[in-house]
Amino acid sequence: MPHESAPPPHTLRSIRAAQAGVATNAVLALAKITAGILGTTYALIADGVESLADVASSLIVWGGVALGARPPDENHPYGHGRAEALAAAVVSVMMLGAAAFVATESIREIRTPHQFPARWTLIFLLGVVAVKAMMAHRVSAVSVESGSTAVAADASHHMSDAITSAAAFVGISAALLGRHFGGGPRWAAADDWAALASSVVIARNGITMALAALHDLMDRSPGEPVLAPLREAALGVPGVCAIEKLAARRVGTGFRVTVHVQASPELSLADAHSLGGRVKYAMRSAGLRIDSVLVHMEPYGGDGEMGG
Question: Are strands 242-251 and 254-263 parallel, antiparallel or unpaired?
């Protein structure tokens, strides 16, 4: 059997971030739902439900990152990197489902007369917002470092939870202020209106992450931020006359690159092969996470982008 090396450091950090998300969200979900029931605020219960979705999403991200880091095998010669994009797509769908649930239940609560929320829930929510904002920041940093679409989706879910909690804080504050100034029972539903507003934010984040995952699954070009340094690296190799074609696609946390290099038609097959190897090395050294480079050598005919 082939030896499987340990996952790279950025993958391990991604897995640890997902594991931390599972533990944190499980505790917060239970605390929010309990506080929402005791404090008679549906906004907090809805927030707890969203945290339950975060638990599931972090588990999916954990699995997607671990599977995506597996090396190529006989049945998957191009590796398992698509697992990350699939995990991100599933998480985005879960976010949309959570948004629909929160919106539906918020409308039901708005139409149902109920008690004013308890004041102590405001202090609880401030702590929740702080924890979730910190989690979103840390996981987002890991996603930038690793280039993982799945981890970025998880960070977005953490931020959605922080936004939901902040909206609940605003809604409960409005309800309590309304009661203090004699606004009447209708102000008791202010936190439910806040939950309804937060569902729109959650849905928006879900759509954004779904599009990002879809782009990866459909092999959308990463654009000039990735192609420009690769092109520059290839053109800087002595012997390269021009670049006819250059394409890249994201697979997991890295990129697979295909380049058509034009060189002197007088080169021998061995020399052309050697030049292709130098181009490959230069592209891998361009400062990007490149998983593979496929170099196609062609005789130079005066077309393409000129090298130095």
Answer: antiparallel
35 shares its domain with 120: yes
Question: What contacts 23, CB < 8 A, 6 or more positions away?
Answer: none
What amino acid is encoded at 170 in this protein? V
- Please identify, among 169, 199, 217, the residue that sits at the C-terminal boundary of a domain: 217
Residues 90 and 142 in one domain: yes
Rounded CA separation 265/247 (Å): 23
Residue-wise pLDDT tens digits, 264-293: 999 999 999 999 999 999 999 998 888 889
pTM of the model: 0.68
Q: Which CATH number is 22's domain given?
A: 1.20.1510.10
| Residues 229 and 298 both lie in one domain | yes
Task: Give the range of the structural domain holding residue 286, as residue numbers without chain letter.
Answer: 224-306
| One domain for residues 299 and 204 | no
Any idea which residue has 């937060």 for tokens?
Answer: 198
What distance, in Å, lies between the first and last C-alpha atoms of the chain? 45
Backbone angles phi, psi at 106, to 5 degrees: -65, -45
Residue 259 DSSP SS3: strand
For residue 195 the two structure tokens come to: 């939950």
DSSP secondary structure letter of residue 148: -
pLDDT in tens, 73-97: 888 887 787 887 888 888 888 888 8
Are 209 and 230 within one domain?
Answer: no
